[in-house]
């Protein structure tokens, strides 16, 4: 059965272009022009992935509100922000809400389709994974287990659902435990443009919070002031 992609975009031409390109890739598309329309649609059935603009009509932060609402219903649902608002504060806000990706307009439709495909593959592997089974690609670092196939981490046997960006940053951080990893290296790991130190700090806060949900004493991620971060092998 084809996956359903929801597009929330108030510009009718852009909405039609996105919907056409995604439909050609074999997905079903539900397209909405306002926050109200999207909320009504989500109340009937949740999609497999959501693409959100931030500004919808006169509502300058409607996309942020929608992200908050939909992730309250389905915390593991992949959400992509696709927007002209590319300043650092907006990007950090989107990441803090739990978005998996934050993409700037204009965007290549082929690239957008590839990002959708990649995030759906990750989510599908996670959903199908038997937690008792250890993946052949899994790597153990003390109490941490990293599964490269599902971009999935576990801590002391508890699953940690990280976004793809968060997983790549964590994998880079723990490659050599105990060694400091620079902001520049972590920026490269995000595979995103317009990344700053503050963006990296936000990602790291989100990663820490997810670990702290299963271990209130989690303290393996150490800040190296002015340089980057370090994974403490003794934590």
Distinctive features:
235 residues; 20% strand; alpha/beta
Task: Please write out the topology.
Elements: E1 4-8, H1 12-24, E2 28-32, H2 35-44, E3 49-52, H3 62-73, E4 79-83, H4 88-97, E5 101-104, H5 109-128, E6 139-141, E7 144-147, E8 152-155, E9 158-160, H6 164-173, E10 180-182, H7 183-190, H8 197-212, E11 221-224, E12 228-231
Parallel strand pairs: 1-2, 1-3, 3-4, 4-5
Antiparallel strand pairs: 6-7, 7-8, 8-9, 10-12, 11-12
Characterization of this structure:
- The protein has 235 residues and is of the alpha/beta class.
- Helices cover 42% and strands 20% of the residues.
- The protein is built from 8 helices and 12 strands.
- The strands form 3 sheets. The chain has a 5-stranded parallel sheet with strand order 2-1-3-4-5, sandwiched between helices.
- It starts with a strand and ends with a strand.
Shape: globular
Rg, rounded, reads: 18 Å
Stretches with pLDDT under 50, minimum 5 residues:
none
Helix count equals 8
Order of helices and strands: EHEHEHEHEHEEEEHEHHEE
First-last Cα distance:
44 Å
> What is the strand arrangement across the widest sheet?
2-1-3-4-5
On the 0-100 scale, what is the average pLDDT?
Answer: 89
Strand segment tally = 12
